[in-house]
Amino acid sequence: MEAKDGYLPVAASIVNVRKEPSLNSPVVSQITIGNLVKIIPNKKVKDKVNSVNGFWVNVEIGYNIKSKLKDGWVFDNYLGVPEKFSKPTNWLHKKFNGCSGDYCLTLKMKPNATYTYSYELCADGNCNEQTSCYEKSEKKISHNGYILCGGSGVIKVYKNLVWLQKFGKETNEYLFLKENKLCMPDMDECIDQTKE
User: Cβ contacts of residue 127 below 8 Å, gap of 6+?
Assistant: First the structure.
């Protein structure tokens, strides 16, 4: 199980984080689809849950009141392990414009599950020409005092989790499907983007 930078996304609507690697163990927290958990290396326990063979993995999540990371156990069937994702044969969504905090993403998607993307590099146009995109492979576009960065990639899906895999680069960028609408973690409202 390889996790990009040690993190994996949650692949189910709500996942229980348990104190110990067992369904009988108390729930210490819950996490929602698309959010990332940090995998604690070399801590996994083989098990069968709801007729599915897999592993309980030890993860770190969020912060509690004492500003310490919480840790617990999650069954890996509910995590977006890269090997579980596959490219859909026919992708119905055409575009996506969504924001999470001050990060806004625009996607144009094709039926063959490829996409182009752009995002605003500097909030409120506070950029200068020396400002560079996050990735060297991204194209930088100056537009009306704003700087946009863009590129392309392939869409892969596991359960309702949508992995925006950039060409030539592993990323931790995920959307998810809810009632056939595309959503971004921490986004207020999901969007039906199957129409032009």
Answer: 121, 145, 146, 147
